[in-house]
Automatic annotation (TrEMBL):
InterPro entries: PRELI/MSF1_dom, Slowmo/Ups. Pfam families: PRELI (PF04707). PROSITE patterns: PRELI_MSF1. It comes from the Eukaryota. The lineage of its organism: Eukaryota, Metazoa, Ecdysozoa, Nematoda, Chromadorea. It comes from Strongyloides papillosus (Intestinal threadworm). Residues 1-176 form the PRELI/MSF1 domain. This is PRELI/MSF1 domain-containing protein. GO terms for cellular component: mitochondrial intermembrane space.
């Protein structure tokens, strides 16, 4: 079993914007390996929101770098995963846990992410602490496969973050356009009212 901790990632968006985008990050231009996403369960307990999703990913592309001798892993077409998230309003954190739920006799990967407001004066950014746990049961090749899986995971992080940023950009731009629309509309109404009063 291996655990790898990613360097701290900082998103230049508020925590509320990031939390909302995490729950709605698929589809995006960088998530072509995601086949489907379904909510299995959602509930509220006190100031916490719990959501469980089933995410179906393409398996063959993710495992393509495994040596050809391990054909049973290279031939996987899909990898069903469970993502569980906990939003805590009191501590201002969003925690996600994503793991494969099939082929566990061969390998297991679990990603853990913790999103929280950055420690700055204005709290306009969001920190992401991320780690990945891997375990492979393939005899003497286990360590080799674990290294390959971890290497592939690291390579895809840029795309993962780019996809989230794309969703954040689209959502915040829409919000800005709406705010500007209402501002313009309000200004127009005020100007018309002034003309009416001065008439």
């Amino acid at each position: 079993m291996k655990i790898w901790h990613s360097p701290l990632q900082i998103f230049k968006y508020t925590f509320d914007d990031v939390a909302s985008a995490v729950w709605n990050r698929y589809p995006n231009d960088y998530s072509t390996h995601i086949i489907s996403e379904d909510i299995l369960e959602s509930r509220i307990e006190g100031n916490k929101i719990f959501i469980k999703k089933l995410i179906i990913k393409k398996g063959s592309k993710y495992l393509k770098m495994i040596p050809f001798g391990m054909s049973s892993l290279r031939s996987l077409k899909i990898v069903p995963c469970i993502e569980e998230s906990i939003y805590d309003r009191d501590s201002k954190t969003l925690k996600t846990y994503t793991r494969n739920v099939s082929y566990n006799d061969k390998f297991m990967m679990e990603e853990r992410c913790v999103y929280s407001p950055s420690v700055d004066e204005y709290k306009t950014s969001t920190d992401l602490k991320r780690s990945i746990l891997t375990h492979v049961n393939y005899g003497k090749f286990s360590n080799l496969i674990q290294k390959v899986l971890l290497m592939q995971y690291k390579k895809r992080l840029k795309g993962t973050d780019s996809g989230l940023i794309q969703v954040l950009t689209e959502r915040t731009n829409v919000s800005s356009e709406r705010v500007n629309f209402f501002k313009d509309s309000l200004s127009s109404k005020i100007e018309n009212a002034r003309k009416y009063i001065n008439y």
